[in-house]
Amino acid sequence: MVGMRDVARKAGVSVSTVSLVVNNAGYVSTDMRAKVEAAMRELDYIPNELARNLYRDRTDTVGVIVPTIAHPFFASLTSALQHEFAERGLKTLLCSTVDADKGEAEYVDMLQRHMMDGIVMAAHTAHPADYWTSIGRPIVAFDRYLGPGIPSVDSDHEQGGRLIARQLIDSGARHVVLIGGPRAQFHDLAAHVDDAVADGNTTFPTVRYYLTLEHELDAAGVRHDYVEAGEVSEFAGYAAAARELFDRFDDVDAVVSSDTGAALCVQEAIRRGFSIPRDLQIIAYDGTYVADAAGLRLSVIRQDFAALASVLASRLSDCIAAGAGEGAAGGASKSSAGAAGAAGDAGTAEASDAAAVSGDGLADGVAGDTAAGDATDNAAAQSGGFGETVVPVTFVPGETTR
């Protein structure tokens, strides 16, 4: 096997010079670098990545933890994340907690052993906040609160709730049924944590769109109900919930759910003779590929996967660059400059919501979204409290609303 000494001998330089070239560390003159690289090519030298990692204390590998990649939302998110990390020269190691015996624990152990450089945590966790804050390595949370000092990136779910409410109230909806996960998630934040951390005293910011929508409907005097569909990985639960809502509520005239739940509601409603959107409006939340596969093009609140992935990758890269200790707890009192520097000009909630309504179809809305702008700029990301970076959402009308 060809080693550094062989390369050094061939190039007529010292082993330390070869090491500097291989690890791209320290100054090496252009001529000297060219000699070393030519020797490497001639000898078919392949650097020992394990040795390089030990030298740099870096693996160039990050973990992405999701509940399940079978869910369209997390499939879309991980695809966008892998692209963003690859652009930064990082490899992605994926963990689907539903499909892994040890859940996230094995990946956290790898992080602590320096077998990866950082983690994006996008799955629900039963671990208390002090578990995450004690790790002392780079972690960024997606759509959840892990603990004080750990940065997070979320979609603007309150904006999403207001956009849905505006559509349904303005179109005359009288009875709205929401389908979602266990209602217990709305109030799962430990009692000793300040309630201001998240609306509804929850570690799960996604529920803000339900809470905001319910608040707006209450203010407008519109009846609403909630049907539980089980955990995010329980797809059969959404089909059962779709049947249940029509069995329980014969006067329902609007349904709000994830893309999967909304698509199933379209199919169930058509089977039962509803005319969509005349008799029943259906709004999906997520804006994945499923929104175009329901039989009718769903009206959706589209989460900006490109922007979310860009901000997540930027924040985790910043944490890694800042060092292990600061990655987990430092830099979280404010959003990173690249992720949220231009966030302050979002304006009032009403102005932001108005800008987030797209008149195009779902596919066109991705390209023409005036709310999010250029995702890679992160220019529209808003800085929330507790190290939270918030990315705007967009309402994209389809064939299932009036």
UniProtKB/TrEMBL annotation:
UniProt cross-references to SUPFAM superfamilies, sorted A to Z: lambda repressor-like DNA-binding domains (SSF47413), Periplasmic binding protein-like I (SSF53822)
Keywords: DNA-binding, Repressor, Transcription, Transcription regulation
CDD domains (UniProt xref): HTH_LacI (cd01392), PBP1_Qymf-like (cd06291)
Domain HTH lacI-type: 2-56
GO molecular function ontology, one term from the record: DNA-binding transcription factor activity
UniProt xrefs under Pfam families: LacI, Peripla_BP_1
UniProt superkingdom: Bacteria
Name of the protein this chain belongs to: LacI family transcriptional regulator
Organism per entry: Bifidobacterium scaligerum
